[in-house]
Specification:
The chain has 139 residues and is an alpha/beta fold. It has a single domain, classed as P-loop containing nucleotide triphosphate hydrolases (Rossmann fold, 3-Layer(aba) Sandwich), CATH 3.40.50. Helix content is 24%, strand content 30%. The chain contains four helices and seven strands. The protein has a seven-stranded mixed beta sheet, covered by helices on one side. A hairpin with a 2-residue loop joins β6 and β7. The mean pLDDT is 93.
Length: 139
């Protein structure tokens, strides 16, 4: 499944479509190069989930936690700065990933061995200034 984001104006619709397409899934691993728009898209998802004040990328804190009236607890991870899976364990990542909460993970390759099997891989790339999200919904 693929979603194309042609412009910033299209973000809200793309986020809403993403949530509809992935209904029933809660763990999302966003795999993309730096500058592809992972944080921007996740922020749009959070807005679509009813979060009014999005804190941006949790680059230094590693995780931001949100409460949505519609979706419950949501974790947004930015694991760019971690050096090992042990560091992820130190912040309690395993408990968060297996808490039945929504999890949006940037740089999931840093915790490959910890990711739940049912995590949805979302590959992002840019082609001709269009952001393309490739969603792997293997059933």
């Amino acid at each position: 499944m693929e979603i194309r984001v042609e412009s910033l104006d299209a973000l809200h619709n793309a986020a809403t479509e993403f949530l509809e397409i992935t209904k029933g899934h809660k763990i999302f691993a966003f795999d993309a190069e730096m500058g592809t728009g992972k944080t921007t898209f996740i922020s749009a998802l959070l807005h679509a989930m009813g979060i009014v004040e999005v804190e941006g990328s949790p680059t230094y804190s590693l995780v931001n936690v949100y409460e949505s009236k519609m979706f419950g607890r949501i974790y947004h991870f930015d694991l760019f700065r971690i050096e090992s899976e042990e560091e992820a364990f130190d912040i309690g990542i395993e408990e968060m990933l297996y808490s039945d909460s929504y999890c949006f993970i940037e740089w999931p390759s840093k915790i490959e061995n910890v990711l739940p099997e049912d995590a949805v891989l979302v590959r992002m790339r840019i082609e001709d200034e269009v952001r393309i999200l490739e969603i792997d919904l293997e059933e």
